[in-house]
Design goal:
With 177 residues, the protein is α/β, with parallel strands linked by helices. 37% of the residues lie in helices and 24% in strands.
Length: 177
């Protein structure tokens, strides 16, 4: 039998306040942004960050990842970024033979809690499509295997100078701060 609803809500509230307190130890003067991100986390939503360069978004997200106890991954959006770059990357090993390593979506496995997609508007539509699918399903099929990311929350920001219409599809799936 589960505890009464009031007890569950009190427990969740104490967890949320504890997370805020942990993040505020690192980030000063951004109480509203921290509260809104906390709401998104507990609502299991994704977040589109609005803010200029150098305002501390990466530091904030690293503090959130430490506060909730999961892994943090980050990728930079570029025009030449391909969907497979999020899943794996290939390189020549010391022996000269091709090797494959996991990309940022797979590297931490089920432990991935915060995925920061910096300047998402620079990425091509195929990358957006992959991210939308991963955000909705919280899983990914690759290498004949299903990878689950049950705790992953995607945080993305966009280059303020290069705002495009490509983000309209993403904005339906994220909470804007």
């Amino acid at each position: 039998m589960s505890p009464p609803l009031d007890a569950q809500l009190t427990d969740w509230r104490s967890h949320a306040l504890k997370l805020e307190d942990e993040v505020k130890k690192v980030i000063v003067g951004q109480d509203k942004a921290i509260r809104l991100m906390n709401i998104a986390i507990f609502a299991r939503g994704h977040v589109l960050l609005d803010g200029g360069v150098g305002v501390g978004k990466t530091t904030l997200l690293q503090a959130i990842a430490r506060g909730i106890g999961g892994a943090y991954e980050r990728i930079e959006g570029t025009v030449d970024l391909m969907p497979n770059d999020l899943i794996y990357h290939t390189f020549l090993g010391p022996d000269g033979r091709p090797q494959i390593d996991e990309g940022p979506l797979l590297r931490a496995g089920e432990n991935l809690s915060v995925f920061f997609f910096n300047e998402i508007n620079r990425a091509r539509p195929q990358v957006h499509a992959l991210m939308l699918r991963v955000m909705a399903e919280r899983s990914l099929s690759a290498f004949k295997k299903e990878y689950r990311m049950p705790h992953m929350i995607v945080f993305a920001d966009r280059n303020q100078v290069e705002k495009t219409k490509l983000l309209k599809s993403l904005q339906r799936h994220v909470t804007a701060l």
